[in-house]
Design brief:
The protein is mostly helical. It has helices at 2-56, 61-77. The protein is 92% helix and 0% strand. It is rod-shaped, with a radius of gyration of 28 Å.
Length: 78
């Protein structure tokens, strides 16, 4: 009977440690997720800003030159 009680106690300790480790992982991944979400939001905001800036200059000669240069690069990559 002592052996069964000792085995059950060890099992409960292992389960408790496993749950603690799991909780630590949940917190770590949760924090990483929050940080990556903030970074993604910043990058999307930067993309919106750059697109707006590009639209402001859509009629200038430099923009047309950059577009033609971009198509040359695309042809080079193919």
């Amino acid at each position: 009977c002592n052996f069964v009680s000792l085995a059950a106690s060890k099992c409960r300790q292992k389960k408790k440690q496993w749950l603690n480790d799991l909780q630590t992982k949940v917190e770590t991944f949760g924090e990483a997720n929050r940080m990556l979400t903030k970074e993604a939001e910043k990058l999307l905001e930067e993309v919106r800003f750059l697109k707006a800036l590009l639209l402001q200059h859509s009629s200038c000669k430099l923009h047309r030159r950059m577009n033609s240069f971009g198509s040359e690069i695309d042809e080079f990559r193919a």
